[in-house]
Amino acid sequence: MDPKIWQNIRNGDALAMKTLYQECFQELFAFGFKMIADKEKVKDCLHEIFCDIWQKRAQVGEVNHVKAYLKTCVRNRLLKEIKLDQKTDQISGQEFEYLTENSYEQLLISAETDADTKVKIWRAINELTQMQREIIKLKFFDELNYEAIAMMLKLKPRTVYNHMYAAICKLRDELSAK
Predict the structure, then answer these.
(1) CB 71 within 8 A of CB 29
(2) Surface-to-core class of residue 146, CB atoms within 10 Å of its CB (0-12 exposed, 13-18 middle, 19+ buried)
(3) CATH architecture for segment(s) 102-177
(4) What are the structural domain ranges in the chain?
């Protein structure tokens, strides 16, 4: 790809933007589809990226490796999309029936028990390997799925499953022993 295209886009050349889109769309689509097997989400993501580039062309900096930059944009945007999808699970109406108001004493006891449990969990997590801690963090704190974790850590999904299984077994042993 001609490096001048990026500079021309920054200067407001709509034809350069069209050229960039036409030259990169298929490759970026294939790249994105490997992350999320949802054609419409990947297309939407790509369109948003190209629109953002055009709208913010005056603020966009110099880029030497345009395709690598675009792939990073796609990867980051799709990871945000994955996280968003996981967070948008709605509480069903039936779950509201179980919500009750607790007394002050019950809240204090609950808070103290929760604090003790958190300390035990953090101690157990610190007994894990670095890789196991990273996978636990990505899965449960960042709410990513196994495929996204595998892509981020450049591992096979099966390896991520195995690390997760070993970590959960170790956590279970550590927490039941204390």
Answers:
(1) no
(2) middle
(3) Orthogonal Bundle (1.10)
(4) 4-87, 102-177
pLDDT, one tens digit for every residue, the chain (178 residues): 677 888 888 899 899 999 999 999 999 998 888 888 888 889 999 999 999 999 998 888 888 888 888 999 999 998 888 887 776 654 444 454 555 556 667 767 777 777 777 888 888 888 899 999 999 889 888 888 999 999 999 999 999 999 999 999 998 888 887 5
Q: Is 120 helix (H, G, I), strand (E, B) or coil?
A: helix
Pairwise CA distance, residues 139 & 126, whole Å: 16
* Two tokens, residue 42: 């990947």
Q: Do domains 4-87 and 102-177 have the same CATH topology?
A: no
Whether the CB-CB separation of 29 and 42 falls below 8 Å is answered with yes
- Four-residue CA torsion sign, 105, 107, 108, 112: positive
Contact 105, 116 (CB under 8 A): no
- Topology, domain 4-87: Rna Polymerase Sigma Factor; Chain: A (1.10.1740)
Q: From CA 29, how far away is CA 43, in angstroms rounded?
A: 7
pTM for the full predicted model: 0.49
Cα dihedral: 131, 137, 114, 123 (round 10) = 20
CA 151 to chain centroid: 10
